[in-house]
Amino acid sequence: MIENQWYAIAPEKMIPPGKMSGIKRLGKELLIFHTSDGNWGCLEDLCSHRGVKLSAGKLKEDGCVECPFHGLRFSATGDCMLIPANGRNTLVEQRYNVRSYAIQVKHGIIYVFNGDKNLATSQVPFFSDFLDESFVFSEIADTWDTHYSRAIENQLDVVHLPFVHHNTIGRGYKTLVHGPKTVVIEDTIITSADNEVDQGQRQRKSQECEIKPDLQLRFKYPNIWINIIAKKIKVFVYFAPIDDEQVILYLRFYNCITPFKSVNRLIAFFGKYANLIIERQDKRVVNTQRPKRTQLRMGEKLIQGDQPIVVYRKLREELIAAAKGSQ
User: Fold this and answer.
1) Of 147, 158, 164, which is closest to residue 280 (Cα–Cα)?
2) What pTM, to 2 d.p., does this model score?
3) Which residues contact 5 (CB under 8 A, 6 or more apart)?
4) Pick from 30, 146, 161, 265: CA 20 to 30 A from residue 176's CA?
């Protein structure tokens, strides 16, 4: 994982008000809770006293989490507020506190800051420029048995289309890959497929290609991606790492095709299942890749069409190194 980054980890609807849930994300056992008054908290899912999961306990009316074993209570900041066996008049020492993580909920997504919460910014990654209030979406989740970096790379790969998706989005056997043009703007990689049927023509270089305004892929670090299919149709994915072996892809089909949101919601509902078929074609292949985690230098023999993947690997390693250098 990349330190000191906001990761999209789960849908907001997963934890309704007054509930909490223990989930594994970012290689960590986390407790996410949502108080009745709308506040959110994220703690390490481990009581400091005797090592039981706090997620087996209760979310109290005061917004604290109560351990199921001996009743210790923890606030959203991880402070231990009460040890019942010691009495209410006994000052609780800081050594009983548990680790807390910065958490935000925006765009219907739970974001957790993977690192020092004091470094957390207020802005979380999203594609607000492309997904305004006119769009509606429907979401579906699927778990892959691979590192999240491999799943992301696959969504930047324009070479595999006629082979993995030969009977869906890759129909036409356009095996010749021009470019592709790939640019980086701040924390976002942008590329467009420029594939043709191979009739012996010359393969064009990246600088001879262009980014297509209404047909492009965008990836924003650390783990969100969008496929701009048309002005009124977008596919959005956030890759929620469980650990170094598994990732959950949360896939959203967005559209504003008609003037009626009720109709667009119906389109989105069926659209997500159409995209799940395509996603499952990817999953079948990507789950077989070894090693599971990608790196810039790992012995693979890359080709011109892999440029978006090279850019992704390079920037990912730069972010990892920068985070380590700031510690």
Assistant:
1) 164
2) 0.95
3) 113, 114, 115, 221, 222, 319, 323
4) 146
Query: Nearest CA to 105 among 42, 164, 195?
Result: 42
In this structure, the answer to whether residues 112 and 141 fall within a common structural domain is no
Boundary of a domain, candidates 119, 154, 178: 119
User: Is the distance from CB of 45 to CB of 26 less than 8 angstroms?
Assistant: no
The per-residue pLDDT for 324 is 84
Per the prediction, the chain carries an average pLDDT of: 96
The token pair at 295 is 């790196």
Whether residues 248 and 211 share a domain: the answer is: yes
Residue 79 neighbours by CB under 8 Å, 6+ apart: 92, 94, 97
For residue 298, list its beta bridge partners.
none
Given a contact cutoff of 8 angstroms between Cβ atoms, the answer to whether 72 and 80 are in contact is: yes
Last residue of a domain, one of 119, 145, 163: 119
> Which is nearest to 73 in space by CA: 62, 82, 86, 84?
82
239 within some domain: yes
Residue 125 lies in a domain: no
Total domains in the fold of the chain? 2
Upper half-sphere CA count for residue 75 (Cβ side, 13 Å): 7
Token pair 């706090």 is found at: 54
CATH number at residue 32: 2.102.10.10
Cα separation of 79 and 44, whole Å?
Answer: 12
- What domain range includes position 251? 136-325
Q: Do 307 and 140 contact (CB within 8 A), yes or no?
A: no
Asked whether residue 155 falls in the same domain as residue 74, the answer is no
Same domain, 221 and 282: yes
Residues listed for the chain:
327
Per DSSP bridges, beta strands 40-44 and 28-34 are antiparallel
For 107-120, how does the pLDDT look when each residue is reduced to its tens digit (9 = 90+)?
999 999 999 999 99
Rg (CA), the chain: 22
Residue 314 falls inside a structural domain: yes
Q: Which two tokens stand for residue 138?
A: 């429907």
Residue 127 within any structural domain of the chain: no
